[in-house]
Amino acid sequence: xxxxxxxxxxxxxxxxxxxxxxxxxxxxxxxxxxxxxxxxxxxxxxxxxxxxxxxxxxxxxxxxxxxxxxxxxxxxxxxxxxxxxxxxxxxxxxxxxxxxxxxxxxxxxxxxxxxxxxxxxxxxxxxxxx
Length: 130
Description:
2 helices, five-stranded mixed β-sheet, alpha+beta
């Protein structure tokens, strides 16, 4: 699809107590969805940031976003929205539900919102230990 992935790591890496394979699965799913629902030749951005209490990873795409009345379906098993992939890709409706379970197990969160200029923004956050 000619999608570019841009990394914006504004904050230095922070030590996290995580299962790296499971967190990689979450990030892979978010990137895959961003590519799946963005138009050809678009850019997907992965951005990191932190506060004293949390470390966050955000994935921004240039797709249509999630319809307001359908956002509650995103993190449910087999939850699908009316938005369709731009390249005919398939979806089981399980990816984000699995991501939520992984983030819950890490004491973190996962969320989604639409960007004002269009596109979706998915964010995962991890608590930082004191």
